[in-house]
Design goal:
The complex is a heterodimer of chains A (562) and B (174).
Chain A: H1 3-18, H2 23-33, H3 37-56, H4 62-67, E1 80-84, E2 102-107, E3 112-113, E4 138-148, E5 159-160, E6 163-176, E7 181-194, E8 197-208, E9 217-219, E10 223-227, E11 231-236, E12 242-248, E13 250-255, H5 256-260, E14 266-269, E15 273-277, E16 283-287, E17 324-329, E18 349-352, E19 362-369, E20 373-381, E21 404-410, E22 441-449, E23 454-461, E24 466-470, E25 476-481, E26 487-495, E27 511-521, E28 528-534, E29 552-556
Parallel strand pairs in A: 8-9, 17-19, 17-29
Antiparallel strand pairs in A: 1-2, 2-3, 4-5, 4-6, 6-7, 7-8, 8-11, 9-10, 10-13, 11-12, 12-15, 13-14, 15-16, 18-19, 19-20, 20-26, 21-22, 21-27, 22-23, 23-24, 25-26, 27-28, 27-29
Helix pairs in contact in A: 1-2, 1-3
Chain B: H1 3-27, H2 31-47, H3 58-77, H4 86-98, H5 103-116, H6 119-130, H7 135-141, H8 146-173
Helix pairs in contact in B: 1-2, 1-3, 2-3, 5-8, 7-8
Classes of the chains: A mainly beta (562), B mainly alpha (174).
Chain lengths: 562, 174
């Protein structure tokens, strides 16, 4: 590469790094890189300096964790390795309190624990720190009716440094730069110390900590809670002490008195809860796990705060991640019993709602087929599972308000993908055409009618939803609640005849159209709260499933031996 | 649960995190976007750890998940950010996967080169990369123009790049 070209190349790469590159700059850089391995290597070498600096100066101390991990082969089960973690070079701008870091790497049968870190604060928490934008490490990412102390106005996107947040009412989410997310329910006071430490003075907060921020520590008057890669909630009460509840993973909770005694603390796993009190001497008391102890449920649509005013309160709570779904051949003798262990799950996909609802609202979905049936299987995360009180015996237009799975799909082999058809409710309405009334464009709603423990099915046809059938003969369905009470498994076998395809069902090699919807309700099983939509065609900008072109690809896979 | 496999997965994830992150940044240079994609990738990896075959290289497997998130990100950002052309990114990711053996050496070289940086330059790097100050914020603190700060950061990155290249060449000769 010539010197001139090198200089030009580096200037363009710098502009890209700085975010000052124009579209013309990027076009030129793309031109220089295209089909030129030498230029690509030069670019990757140079950009790696930026990447390495970004990594080494991240706030999560990941680099230190790596450098102190023992060799893979030297770790036996249950072995403990204690290493003192120090920074490679002193950095400016840190608070004056002293930290001692001890990482404990422990490998157990149930969980991998990368590091447990005990932090001693040598100072009192601040009373009312002023925002320090230069040292900011997190930001307000969501708010649902959040009202702040001193009538302070805080907007989504506002950055926070070390300071005390006083939330009067509502729910807000704070996202740290290292991926830690905190959902705070008012009234509450949370002091942000730095990217790895916070102090809860009062109120309820749920933290979700990614693997890269293991060791994140929350302190209260009574306790230190050290995260080991998990999701946990803490309630600092005015008089009862500190409640800690673990949803997933593991934490170590230390009563402050225990810390002085150098105790290893109490390990809590997913599904466990503990109360720590220091009034009248240090006591700990195991609490029953109660999923509803910490608030992270979808608000009613009318209370939903929309990031984009053009969005509808009924907009999905997720960003679709899948354009296609692999529908696999069904094994023989599949039992429809709410247990997918006898399924061919090679086509299974996962989808989650956006934070802060992703922990409780998600789905693992799969479909299979044979000559007689389309099989639908789903593991759904739902804090209020199988509670629908929408009766299939009543005549309704829709049956999903109490929570359901819904599908738009085409069985029209002649049409292929993308599907064509449009119904009322799209952003570009037009007069109904014959193709919109196609019986092979099917709308399925699957729900569990709790009052009669009845797996139910609602089928309509075309984009005009004609020919409605409720619990028709021929289908099989089963629901099973998850053992932790936080979701359910649904399993259905629906004959092709009900999908207008008895004479010509989809076969191996077909690519047709399908989209998945999961609807959630509140605890009463009657009122719709929110939805997730996935397996969609990204080329169609309108999410509305009343436009059949929006449905994703449903690929009917041949048997593995073909 | 296969505890040994889980253990291997967790250790390899921790060891390779910096490489997955660098792979992401090489295609999504915006730090906030790259960080988000990296976090999503880590979560996806944890969700799919049972699919990991310990007999295979961890990094290509993990980068496959990262690339899916990168593609999704590009789709979202196509009309909002200037991005390298799609075919070029595809070529770059192929090229990046082939460079894995040198990544540890490059990182060690950078750490050594950082030690050699003059104090003022090290503070500038910290302001920008650790405290995530914008160029404008740094400029205001130092009573300088943003353009001067841009130039200074460019000079530091270039100096580090040259230092890394020099060190790797010297090691290859020895």
């Amino acid at each position: 590469m010539s010197t001139t070209k090198q200089r030009q190349f580096r200037e363009l790469t710098d502009a890209l790094v700085e975010g000052t590159a124009t579209s013309k700059d990027v076009e030129r850089l793309s031109g220089l890189l295209r089909d030129d391995p030498e230029a690509q290597d030069a670019y990757l070498d140079f950009i790696d300096v930026h990447a390495l600096l970004s990594w080494e100066f991240r706030g999560s101390d990941s680099a230190e964790q790596v450098s102190n991990l023992p060799k893979e082969d030297s770790l036996a089960e249950d072995e403990r390795v204690v290493a003192t973690v120090t920074r490679r070079w002193p950095r400016s701008g840190e608070r004056s309190y002293r930290r001692t870091w001890e990482s404990v790497v422990r490998v157990g049968l149930a969980m991998i624990v990368v590091a447990a870190i005990v932090i001693f604060f040598k100072g009192k928490p601040t009373d009312e720190s002023q925002p320090d934008l230069a040292g900011s490490f997190c930001q307000l990412s969501k708010t649902v009716g959040g009202q702040w102390g001193s009538d302070r106005t805080v907007r989504v996107g506002e950055r926070f440094g070390p300071q005390r947040l006083k939330l009067k009412t509502g729910i807000v989410e704070v996202t740290f730069d290292n991926g830690v997310r905190a959902v705070l329910a008012g009234p509450a006071e949370l002091e942000l110390v730095d990217s790895m430490n916070a102090w809860l003075h009062r109120g309820r907060v749920v933290f979700r900590v990614p693997p890269s921020a293991i060791g994140f520590t929350l302190e209260t008057t009574e306790a230190n809670v050290v995260d080991l890669g998990t999701e946990f909630g803490v309630h600092a009460g005015e008089s009862v002490g500190t409640d800690v509840q673990v949803y997933e993973g593991e934490v170590v909770a230390h009563a402050k008195d225990d810390l002085q005694n150098d105790s290893m603390g109490k390990r809590l796993h997913g599904g466990q809860a503990l109360r720590i009190s220091t009034a009248g001497g240090c006591t700990t008391e195991e609490l029953p796990f109660w999923p509803e102890r910490f608030v992270r449920y979808m608000p009613a649509p009318e209370d939903r705060e929309l990031a984009d005013p053009n969005d509808s309160p009924r907009s999905p709570h997720n960003s679709p991640q899948h354009e296609e779904l692999q529908i696999t051949p069904a094994p023989t003798d599949v039992a429809i019993d709410g247990d997918l262990s006898d399924w061919n799950l090679k086509g299974q996909f996962s989808s989650r709602c956006d934070p802060p609802y992703d922990a409780f609202y998600h789905v693992n979905g799969a479909m299979m087929y044979d000559k007689e049936y389309l099989y639908i299987g789903a593991d759904v995360g739902d804090p209020f599972p199988m509670r629908s009180l929408i009766s299939p015996h009543e005549r309704r237009k829709l049956y999903g308000n109490g929570g359901c799975l819904a599908f738009r799909l085409s069985t029209d082999r002649g049409m292929g993908w993308p599907a064509r058809g449009q119904g009322p409710g799209t952003t570009k309405p037009r007069k109904m055409l014959q193709e919109d009334r196609n019986d092979r464009l099917v709308f399925l709603v699957l729900w569990y009618y709790a009052a009669e423990e009845l797996p139910s099915l609602h089928v309509t046809y075309g984009m005009d939803w004609h020919g409605a059938k409720v619990n028709p003969s021929g289908y099989q369905g089963a629901f099973r609640q998850h053992a932790d009470g936080k979701g359910y498994t649904a399993e259905y076998a629906i004959p092709w005849a009900l999908l207008s395809a008895a004479d010509d069902p989809p076969r191996a090699g077909d690519t047709l159209a399908c989209t998945w919807l999961v609807h959630w309700s509140g605890p009463e099983g009657l009122n719709w709260k929110g939805q997730l939509v996935d397996v969609v065609n990204p080329e169609e900008k309108d999410w509305n499933f009343q436009n059949a072109a929006k449905w994703g690809r449903a690929i009917y896979r041949p048997p593995d031996n073909e | 649960m296969d505890a040994k496999k889980h253990q291997q997965f967790a250790q390899r994830l921790v060891r390779n995190q910096n490489k997955v992150f660098r792979y992401v940044v090489s295609m999504v240079v915006n730090r906030a976007d790259a960080e988000e994609i990296f976090q999503q990738t880590c979560l996806t990896l944890w969700e799919n750890w049972e699919q990991y075959d310990p007999a295979l290289d961890f990094l290509p497997w993990a980068c496959g998940f990262a690339y899916n998130h990168i593609r999704n990100h590009r789709r979202k950002m196509e009309n909002r950010q200037v991005l390298l052309d799609r075919d070029v990114v595809e070529q770059l990711q192929q090229r990046a996967l082939g460079r894995q053996p040198s990544l540890d050496d490059r990182r060690a070289a950078l750490l050594a080169c950082l030690e050699e940086l003059p104090e003022e330059q090290r503070t500038s790097i910290e302001s920008y990369y650790e405290r995530r100050q914008t160029v404008e914020q740094i400029a205001e603190q130092r009573s300088a123009t943003p353009n001067a700060i841009y130039k200074m950061l460019r000079r530091i990155r270039t100096a580090l790049f040259q230092c890394i290249t020099r060190r790797l060449a010297a090691e290859a000769m020895s």
